[in-house]
Design goal:
The protein starts with a strand and ends in a 22-residue tail after the last helix. The longest helix has 10 residues, at 15-24. It is of the alpha+beta class and 99 residues long. The chain has a four-stranded mixed β-sheet, with helices on one face. It has helices at 15-24, 69-77; strands at residues 4-9, 34-37, 43-51, 54-60. 19% of the residues lie in helices and 26% in strands. It contains two helices and four strands, in the order E-H-E-E-E-H. The chain has one domain (4-77).
Length: 99
Amino acid sequence: MANIRRIISFDKLDTEVLNAVNEKYPNGWRNHVKKIDKGDGSFFHAITIDYGDFSYLVKVNVKIDTLSDLEKEEKKLNFEEAPEKEVEVEFNDEENYED
C-alpha cells in the first residue's frame, strides 16, 4: 500500500511528526529545502518527511537573501568608512639622514 500524501505547514505539525522531522534532520533542514512550483506561477518551499502511513510535504518559511556579494561582505565585516583626519607633521631640515 502506498503512503497517503499530505501537504501541511510546519507550524501545524503535531508533536509526533515534529519529533520525526527533528530525528530525520538532526542538524537542521536548511540544506534540504525544495522549491515546489504550484503550476500557476507561484511556489512554496518544503521539506519531506515520512511518518506512519503518511508522506508529508511540509511547507517551511525561507528567508531569501537579496544582498549583493559586496553588501554581504561589508555587512560581515561591519564595515564603516572612517572619517578623514588631518595630521600635522613637522620636518626638521637641520637633521642629517643617512641612507
